[in-house]
């Protein structure tokens, strides 16, 4: 099928986190879920998308070679597979540094960039495509989001509840988050200087983009895009992968 979008899209797969809350010896991206590593799940989904572009995998410095090797073995790529131009670069201390390093490795012809957490291994391919299409349609930032189901409370340092937060206008955002490349580059140019006194920590790209005045819209997210943070998240996603019969194929 002919790609209706002449502009090329790049994906930055951030996998350089240590995953301390998971308590594993390996970096989180190399932890197993349903017989495959988290990064392998994500790579498989990306290389089978019905479109292609640049894929920059951001890995922990010490594991860069291993991740390159794993990707090489699993998907049989050297630099190009099924139209994907794949590079593996070393990440930074903070997530936003890893994204910035990934951005720097994108080819000049890429004008739309999706940033995806390797820690969301079962994110469906449809979410990637919806985010990309919405960025092309609206030329602004796009994030997948789900309504918040639980009652939310503000809590003091000693654990006492202060008050209930109206969840009516609240959403939980996921990845992949997509942006026009120029906007994402502007947002990452000097992230620390953008809002030095902001009480909100930078945990996603949409926050940085909004700090430089960028507009960010939402598309429907997915339960399957749940992020692995603790061992319980792994069990939850393992059950999801098994119950839907997906993601259980062991790598070669
Ligand atoms: O730590 P957290 O779970 O929020 O990380 C989200 C994603 O960002 C993970 O896929 C992780 O590997 C990545 N990350 C990174 N570089 C860092 C920190 C996190 O690539 N320095």
Q: Topology of this protein?
A:
Layout: E1 8-14, E2 32-33, E3 36-37, H1 38-47, E4 53-59, H2 64-75, E5 80-81, E6 84-90, H3 95-104, E7 110-117, H4 125-138, E8 141-147, E9 152-155, E10 161-165, E11 171-173, E12 177-180, H5 181-189, H6 191-194, H7 205-211, E13 216-220, H8 231-243
Parallel strand pairs: 1-4, 1-7, 4-6, 8-13
Antiparallel strand pairs: 2-3, 5-6, 7-12, 8-11, 9-10
The site of cytidine-5'-monophosphate has 18 residues, from helix 3.
Short summary:
It contains eight helices and 13 strands. It is an alpha/beta fold.
Percent of residues in helices? 25-40%
**How many structural domains in the coordinates?**
1
Strand arrangement within the widest β-sheet reads: 5-6-4-1-7-12
Give the helix tally.
Answer: 8
Briefly, what CATH class? Alpha Beta
Walkthrough of the structure:
- It is a single chain.
- The protein is an alpha/beta fold and 252 residues long.
- The chain has one domain (9-244): Spore Coat Polysaccharide Biosynthesis Protein SpsA, Chain A.
- The chain is built from 8 helices and 13 strands.
- The chain has helices at residues 38-47, 64-75, 95-104, 125-138, 181-189, 191-194, 205-211, 231-243, and strands at residues 8-14, 32-33, 36-37, 53-59, 80-81, 84-90, 110-117, 141-147, 152-155, 161-165, 171-173, 177-180, 216-220.
- The strands form 4 sheets. A 6-stranded mixed β-sheet has the order 5-6-4-1-7-12, sandwiched between helices. A 3-stranded mixed β-sheet has the order 11-8-13. A two-stranded antiparallel ribbon has the order 2-3.
- Helix 1 (38-47) packs across helix 2 and helix 5 (181-189) crosses helix 7 (205-211).
- The longest helix is centred in the middle third of the chain and has 14 residues, at 125-138.
- Mean pLDDT is 89; it is low at 248-252.
- The structure holds cytidine-5'-monophosphate.
- Cytidine-5'-monophosphate binds at residues 14-17, 28-29, 58, 91-95, 98, 117-119, 227, 229.
